[in-house]
C-alpha cells in the first residue's frame, strides 16, 4: 500500500492515503519470487505460471491438487535445481521445499512453491545473492520479478507491502540483495514507523480513541453528563485515558508477540469493534465516574492483541521481538499523542458551548453504528458498508481535519456558553 508521509508527525497520522493496489501483484504471464528474511532463515515463495512450467519442466499439470501431488518428486527436484541462495561469502544456503500448491494469480493458473533457506552459519549476516533459472533458460522471453516481503534489521517490515528488488531473465539470472546497514537500530526505527502507521491506518483504533476523548471535558452528575470540567481537570482525565489504553495494549502486545498467549483473529477483531460500541455508550451516558479510563484500559488489551499481528508476521527470534515490540509501541504512542494533540483542543473548545451535547451524541451514535458495521463485516468476511466514507476521509485527511476545525469554530460561535460543574472525583472546586 502506498502511503504519503508528511513533514510533521501529525501529518504522518493524518496523511495516510488509500492503497494503489495489492503488493503481491506482478505482470501477467511472469513468475514472481517473494523473500521473507527471518531470524534464522529466509522463506522463499515462488509463483510460476502453470503453462510456462509445463513447457519448461516437461509436465502436464492441469491445475488440480491431485496432479501436483502426483508430480511432487519431479517438481521438487526441478525447483531445487533452479534456485540457489548464497551469503556474502558465496556459501550456499540449504534449501528445502515445504509446499507445492496450485493457485490462481492475476487470473492465471500457477504453482505456488514454498521453500525454506537455512544459512550456512546458522544466522543471517550481510548481503544475499539469488540465482534463479526456473523457466528462464527454457523460455528466454520469460521474466521473474523479485520482492522482499520483510527483513527487520534491513528496515523492511512489510509497510506498504513487499518491496520490489528487481527482475530476472535468461540473460541476467542473478540478483544481489543488499541489506545495507542492517542493524537493530534500523529495525527499531522501522518498527516505530510501522507502529505509527498502524494507528494512522487503523480507522477503528482512531475512532475508539476519539470516542473515549469525547467524555474527557465533561463531568458526570446523577448518571448523566451534566457539565464541563476545567481545562486542568480535562487534561488530567485525558492523561488517564491515554495511560490506561497504553498500559492495556502494551501488555497484550508483548504477551502475544512472545507467544505467551494467543487468540483467534476473528473474535479479536469483533472485540475491537465491540470496544468502540462500549466507548460510544459511555460517551452517550456515563457507565461509571471514570468509565472512559476503565474502558481504555480493558479494551487496550484487545487492541494490543490486534496490533501483535504485525509483529507475529515477521517471524522474529526473542531478541528481534524485543526490538520490534519496543519500536512498535513507541510508534503507537507517538501517533496517539498526535491524535490527542489534534483532537483534544477542539473538544475542549466545543465543550464550553451548549452545542457540544449534539456533537457528542452525533459522534457517539456514528461510532456505535460503525462498530456494528465492522463486526458484521468481520463475521461475514466483507468490507464494512461505511468503507467508502473512511476511504474518502483518509484520502483527504488535511481537508477533513480542517473541515472539522472550521465546523467546531462555527459551532462555538453559534451556541451559548456552558457552565463549569464541581467535580468531586477530582477534588477540584469549580
TrEMBL record:
InterPro entries, per database record: Put_HupE_UreJ (IPR032809)
Classification via Pfam families: HupE_UreJ_2
Transmembrane segments: 206-227, 239-261, 267-284, 293-316, 322-351, 358-378, 398-415
Name of the protein in question: HupE/UreJ protein
Keyword Transmembrane carried by entry: yes
Record keywords, A-Z: Membrane, Signal, Transmembrane, Transmembrane helix
Superkingdom in the source lineage: Bacteria
Annotated signal sequence range: 1-25
Amino acid at each position: 500500500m502506498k502511503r504519503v508521509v508528511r513533514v510533521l508527525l501529525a501529518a504522518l497520522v493524518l496523511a495516510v492515503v488509500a492503497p494503489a493496489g495489492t503488493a503481491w501483484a506482478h505482470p501477467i504471464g511472469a513468475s514472481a519470487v517473494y523473500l521473507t528474511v527471518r531470524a534464522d532463515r529466509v522463506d522463499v515463495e515462488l509463483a510460476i505460471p502453470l503453462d510456462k512450467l509445463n513447457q519448461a519442466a516437461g509436465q502436464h499439470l492441469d491445475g488440480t491438487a491431485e496432479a501436483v501431488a502426483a508430480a511432487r518428486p519431479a517438481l521438487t527436484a526441478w525447483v531445487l535445481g533452479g534456485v540457489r541462495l548464497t551469503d556474502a561469502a558465496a556459501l550456499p544456503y540449504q534449501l528445502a521445499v515445504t509446499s507445492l500448491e496450485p493457485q490462481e494469480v492475476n487470473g492465471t493458473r500457477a504453482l505456488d512453491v514454498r521453500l525454506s533457506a537455512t544459512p550456512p552459519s546458522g544466522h543471517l549476516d550481510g548481503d544475499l545473492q539469488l540465482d534463479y533459472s526456473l523457466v528462464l533458460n527454457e523460455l528466454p522471453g520469460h521474466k521473474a520479478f523479485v520482492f522482499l516481503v520483510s527483513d527487520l534489521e534491513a528496515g523492511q517490515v512489510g509497510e506498504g507491502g513487499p518491496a520490489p528488488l528487481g527482475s530476472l531473465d535468461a540473460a541476467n539470472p542473478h540478483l544481489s540483495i543488499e541489506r545495507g546497514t542492517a542493524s537493530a537500530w534500523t529495525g527499531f526505527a522501522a518498527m516505530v514507523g510501522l507502529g505509527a502507521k498502524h494507528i494512522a491506518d487503523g480507522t477503528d483504533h482512531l475512532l475508539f480513541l476519539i470516542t473515549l476523548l469525547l467524555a474527557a471535558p465533561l463531568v458526570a452528575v446523577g448518571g448523566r453528563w451534566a457539565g464541563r470540567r476545567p481545562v486542568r481537570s480535562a487534561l488530567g482525565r485525558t492523561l488517564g485515558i491515554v495511560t490506561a489504553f497504553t498500559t492495556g495494549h502494551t501488555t497484550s502486545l508483548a504477551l502475544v508477540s512472545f507467544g505467551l498467549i494467543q487468540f483467534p483473529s476473528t473474535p479479536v477483531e469483533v472485540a475491537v469493534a465491540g470496544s468502540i460500541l462500549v466507548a460510544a455508550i459511555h460517551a452517550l451516558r456515563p457507565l461509571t465516574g471514570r468509565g472512559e479510563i476503565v474502558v481504555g484500559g480493558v479494551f487496550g488489551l484487545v487492541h494490543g492483541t490486534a496490533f501483535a499481528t504485525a509483529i507475529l508476521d515477521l517471524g522474529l527470534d526473542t531478541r528481534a521481538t524485543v526490538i520490534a515490540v519496543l519500536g512498535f509501541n513507541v510508534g503507537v504512542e507517538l501517533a496517539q499523542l498526535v491524535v490527542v494533540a489534534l483532537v483534544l483542543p477542539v473538544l475542549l473548545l466545543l465543550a464550553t458551548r451548549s452545542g457540544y451535547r449534539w456533537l457528542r451524541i452525533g459522534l457517539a451514535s456514528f461510532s456505535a453504528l460503525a462498530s456494528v458495521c465492522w463486526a458484521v463485516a468481520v463475521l461475514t468476511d466483507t468490507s464494512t458498508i461505511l468503507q467508502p466514507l473512511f476511504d474518502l476521509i483518509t484520502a483527504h485527511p488535511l481537508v477533513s481535519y480542517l473541515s472539522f476545525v472550521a465546523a467546531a469554530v462555527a459551532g462555538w460561535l453559534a451556541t451559548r456558553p456552558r457552565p463549569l460543574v464541581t467535580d468531586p472525583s477530582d477534588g477540584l472546586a469549580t
